[in-house]
Hints:
The protein is mostly helical and about 180 residues long. The protein contains seven helices and no strands. It has helices at about 1-10, 10-15, 20-70, 85-110, 110-135, 140-170, 175-180.
Amino acid sequence: xxxxxxxxQTNRAAFDTAQPPSSVWAQIEKAIEPQQQTTARRIQLGxxxxxxxxAMLLLVIGIGIGxxxxxxxxxxxxxxxxxxxPEHAELETYYQSQVQLRMQQLVNYRQIAxxxxxxxxxxxxxxxxxxxxxxxxxxxxxxIIQAMIDNYKxxxxxxxRVLDRVQYTNPELTNPASDEISI
Length: 183
């Protein structure tokens, strides 16, 4: 080692002034560039993935909070025709009273079981319409309101047809409640 150190000290000036050929530096740069580009891509992709993960986390948290805050009140927020305007409230009250009257008559005739599946199906459609009305875009509410009114009309029509059929086939049952009270 001492000989190497002596050689370096004696030729120090030659080391500082001598430069390697430019082809050596070109080869060194070629070897370094692909490594630097790969590292840069990894850093950029990692940065992008971290940002995307943070955004997704915030989105999931926001959705979770929204469901938590609105979860218990989803059914309570259903709109009825009464909630919309006085005219619609009158229509709804009229149709509800007429449906109740016809249903009571069918109960008296002991025929309500014939129409219960149809009425349940219409009730399910009405609930869907209420959900649609809650989230309807501006301008399309009137179509949904008309569908709700048509639902009431269909329910009333079914009940009237069954009542007509019962009264036609059994004319002696014009007042079924009086048949039950026989002394």
